[in-house]
Structure formats: C-alpha cells, structure tokens
From TrEMBL:
Signal peptide: none annotated. Residues 242-309 form the tRNA(Ile)-lysidine synthase substrate-binding domain. It catalyses: cytidine(34) in tRNA(Ile2) + L-lysine + ATP = lysidine(34) in tRNA(Ile2) + AMP + diphosphate + H(+). Keywords: ATP-binding, Cytoplasm, Ligase, Membrane, Nucleotide-binding, Transmembrane, Transmembrane helix, tRNA processing. The gene is tilS. Belongs to the tRNA(Ile)-lysidine synthase family. GO terms for biological process: tRNA modification. This is tRNA(Ile)-lysidine synthase. NCBIfam families: lysidine_TilS_N. Ligates lysine onto the cytidine present at position 34 of the AUA codon-specific tRNA(Ile) that contains the anticodon CAU, in an ATP-dependent manner. Cytidine is converted to lysidine, thus changing the amino acid specificity of the tRNA from methionine to isoleucine. Residues 14-188 form the tRNA(Ile)-lysidine/2-thiocytidine synthase N-terminal domain. The N-terminal region contains the highly conserved SGGXDS motif, predicted to be a P-loop motif involved in ATP binding. GO terms for cellular component: cytoplasm.
Length: 317
C-alpha cells in the first residue's frame, strides 16, 4: 500500500472501492492505516448495482464500517445496470462510470481497486481463451490513470487472512459462486484443475506472465507510435496516408500495429477492427499484386496507390 501511494502529494484524497468482500475490505483497512501516516486523506466508495434483494442494506453496512477503518468520506453509489455486452460487462461499465464520477466530484487523486494475484491469473486465462494477443495476456495494470491495484502481487488467501486478523467480516457475494459467469467457472474449475495437474504456483506463474507481457506490450506500443509518426505522410480530413517503403522495413508485429493504429485514426471502430482486417491491409504492403481496396469497419477502405497506403472513408460508403 505504501508503494502504491508513494508518489501522491500531501493531503491528496485516496478512495478505496469496496464491495465488502475480503479483497476490497482488506484494501480499505490497509488504506485507512497507511494514509494518515503518509499525510494523505482516505475515503471509501461502494457501488450498489441493485441486482440482488437487500443490496442497498449491504452497501450501507459497508459504508458503516468506514469510520472504524478511518475512512472519510464514505458513500454508496447506486447504479442501474444495463444489458449491453452481457451482465458482467454491463455491471463493470456501470461501476466504473460511477466511480469515475464520484472521484471527479470529490477531487480524488486516486481510486484503489482490490484485485489480487488470483484475479490477475483469471484475467490472463480469459485473455488466452479469446486469443486476442499480447495486450490481452498482459492482464490488469497495477496503475491505469486514476485507478491503482496495490494487491496484484498478493493472493486472495492473504486478504482473507488479513480480514480475519483484523476482526473484519467480509460479505461473500453469491455472484462470485454463480457458474453462469465465465470468470466464476475459471475460478472454480479451470484454475483448480491446472493446479492439480501442473502443481502449485500456477496463479503466481500466470501473474508473472502478465507482468512480462505488459512490459513487452508497452515497449511495442512505444515502438509502434514512433514508427507510425515516421511512416505517416499526411492526415487530411481523416484520411491517413502511409509510406509503403517504410512500412516494408518494419517487423511484422510493429507494422501490423501501425496499420491498426492508422485504421483507428482514420475512423474505424477499434472494437470492430479484427486481426483479419489488419492482415488484409498488411497484404497490400507485403504481398502487393495490384489487388483492390480492402474494406474496413466504419465505412473505410485501405488502398495502395503510387507507393502509398491510403486509409479513408470509402467513396461507396
């Protein structure tokens, strides 16, 4: 916790996002202990998703513990969860929107999240199953904007033991045991099988893999941005023009990231732009045989012309 807060200015407000579970309750307790000793202010936020009977009362119980932990302000954020993207994604979107709004209103310097090494391992396995590349395998960042995750190197067993030692009673969310949710199935079935068949330490190994993957992905992103600036010839009315000769000299991994970066800059929605689309554009660079333009999501097309690659709104869109 001290390491996570070390760069914050004196009297900065830090908020713990606390669901009442062992991970976030231990997080709130650690913040309440450490913050005043570092000259910081500490508060607590809990989100009521209104998805279960009695959720408002449970959220209030979490807030009621804040004073004992030395946390003020302490608030319940009540949200309405939509349906887009499935129940897990919709709840996450509503939760983060509420946390962001509260942090802005309270002028908080940071919001702490209680994700542990076990959560990181689950995230890596889910990313591996999706086959969505290095960035997906890098898991959750220890710090991303205002959000910080001090416990990513700690096990869930440690947070449970901490609550027991402090006399805190966590709330076990039934959703965390519901096999309808993919993450729950990974937690209850996949990880235990891996531990049984491969030996203990799988979660630690997956979390370590996430750290290394994140470092590599960050380095590739920096290289990609530099290469993009070097290859880009113009950006006129949203049309991106890249020099094919310079693209040809890049390693495959960097070149394809540059092409994805250019397509998004030209207006292609990142969520709809697949690896298949990027590979089709890549063939205009590496396997040029005079082929036609490549259609991309968002009504864009990629065309090779006079040694340049042009990504722009298709005239037929």
């Amino acid at each position: 916790m001290r390491e996570a807060l070390a760069d914050l200015p004196h009297e900065a407000l830090v908020l713990a996002a606390c669901s009442g579970g062992a991970d976030s309750l231990a997080l709130a307790a650690a913040l309440g202990f450490v913050a005043p000793r570092m000259g910081l202010r500490a508060g607590l936020l809990t989100v009521d998703h209104q998805l279960q009977p009695g959720s408002a009362e449970r959220a209030q119980q979490v807030v009621n513990q804040a004073a004992r932990l030395g946390l003020h302000p302490a608030e319940v954020l009540t949200v309405t969860v939509g349906t887009e993207g499935g129940p897990e994604a919709a709840a996450r979107e509503a939760r983060y929107a509420a946390l962001a709004a509260a942090a802005d209103r309270l002028r908080a310097a940071a919001v702490l999240l209680g994700h542990t090494r076990d959560d990181q391992a689950e995230t890596v396995l889910l990313g591996l199953a999706r086959g969505s590349g290095l960035r997906s395998l890098s898991g959750m960042a220890a710090q991303a904007g205002r959000y910080r995750r001090p416990f990513l190197d700690l096990s869930r067993a440690t947070t449970v033991a901490a609550c027991r030692a402090l006399g805190l009673t966590p709330w076990d969310d039934p959703h965390n045991e519901d096999p309808r949710y993919t993450r729950v199935r990974v937690r209850q079935k996949v990880l235990p099988v891996l531990e049984q068949e491969l030996g203990p330490g799988v979660a630690e190994a997956l979390a370590r893999t996430a750290r290394m993957a994140r470092e590599d992905a960050d380095a590739l992103d920096e290289w990609t941005e530099s290469a993009y600036q070097d290859c880009a010839l113009s950006d006129i009315d949203g049309a991106i023009t890249l020099a094919v000769k310079k693209l040809e000299n890049l390693p495959d991994a960097v070149r394809r990231r540059v092409l994805r970066r250019a397509a998004i800059a030209a207006g292609s929605p990142s969520g709809a732009l697949s690896a298949t689309h990027v590979l089709a554009v890549d063939r205009l660079v590496t396997r040029w045989r005079g082929q036609k333009a490549v259609d991309l999501p968002g009504g864009l097309s990629a065309t090779r012309r006079y040694g340049n690659l042009i990504l722009a709104i298709s005239p037929h869109a």
